[in-house]
């Protein structure tokens, strides 16, 4: 058996997240991959994903792996899958054969996400699927100042959505950057792992700061409180994109 690792990108608009759902009939990224792989290999393939992105969330650098006896040369895998059954909003960018023990989720050292906000009085017909439209002018400098308080190892319980099953809420944020290019305002964050909806709650909290409703220093108080009610709203899914997973 071979262990194949794939890097893929997808537009998550039409999918109920990455992970296959117990309820039949809901399209997922994992479900589409397994369907096409089974057709090519004749095997019941189980795909392991580095990140279980939510419904509507996108990816430019999602990583998956799967075990198979499929004899295809590894450099032909993207060509086969992209032209042989995958929908156009899921694309395999790269494939490689890895050691048998490699696990896309458990071996990940850190991940980078980007949250995009379209900040203008007038919305965009082209960005509405890939950003959160905020018509109120945001103070990006205040947001950047607040973001610095997220750096380091903290208990991020206040930035976790209800229903999460993580054993610990302690995570490490290595880098965070707020940047603006015209109406596009981005929050790029790298960490060793993220709680359920953590990046979207961080984005929602920073937007409240950008609106002037909260002071930048409040981030430290929110972290110390461990209380989800102290943080801002959960930003909508379409602004979030998984950029990269490092091993």
Distance between the termini: 22 Å
* Beta strand count: 10
Helices, by number, come to: 5
- Class derived from helix and strand content: alpha+beta
**Considering DSSP H and I runs of 4 or more, what fraction of the residues is helical?**
10-25%
Radius of gyration: 19 Å
> How would you sum up the global shape?
globular
Roughly what fraction of the amino acids lie in strands?
A: 25-35%
One letter per element, helices H and strands E, the order comes to EHEEHEEEHEEEHHE
Q: Which segments are poorly predicted (pLDDT under 50) over 5 or more consecutive residues?
A: none
Q: Give the averaged pLDDT, no decimals.
A: 96
The biggest beta sheet reads: 10 strands, mixed
Key features of this structure:
10 strands; 247 residues; 20% helix; 5 helices; globular; alpha+beta; 30% strand; ten-stranded mixed sheet
């Amino acid at each position: 058996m071979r262990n194949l690792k794939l890097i893929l990108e997808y537009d998550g608009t039409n999918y109920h997240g990455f992970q296959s759902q117990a309820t039949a009939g809901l399209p997922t990224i994992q479900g589409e991959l397994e369907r096409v792989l089974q057709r090519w290999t004749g095997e019941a393939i189980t795909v392991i994903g580095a990140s279980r992105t939510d419904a509507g969330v996108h990816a430019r650098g999602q990583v998956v792996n799967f075990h198979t006896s499929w004899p295809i040369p590894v450099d032909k895998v993207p060509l086969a899958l992209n032209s042989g059954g995958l929908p156009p909003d899921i694309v395999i960018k790269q494939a490689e054969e890895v050691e048998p023990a490699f696990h896309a989720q458990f071996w990940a050292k850190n991940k980078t996400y980007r949250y995009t906000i379209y900040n203008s009085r007038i919305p965009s017909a082209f960005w509405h699927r890939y950003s959160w439209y905020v018509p109120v002018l945001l103070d990006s400098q205040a947001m950047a100042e607040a973001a610095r308080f997220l750096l380091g190892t903290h208990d991020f319980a206040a930035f976790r959505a209800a229903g999460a099953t993580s054993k610990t809420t302690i995570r490490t944020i290595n880098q965070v950057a707020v940047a603006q290019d015209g109406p596009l305002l981005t929050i790029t964050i790298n960490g060793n792992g993220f709680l359920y909806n953590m990046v979207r709650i961080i984005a929602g909290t920073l937007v409240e700061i950008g609106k002037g409703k909260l002071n930048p220093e409040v981030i430290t108080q929110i972290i110390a409180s461990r209380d989800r009610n102290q943080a801002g709203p959960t930003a909508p899914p379409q602004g979030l994109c998984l950029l990269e997973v490092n091993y």
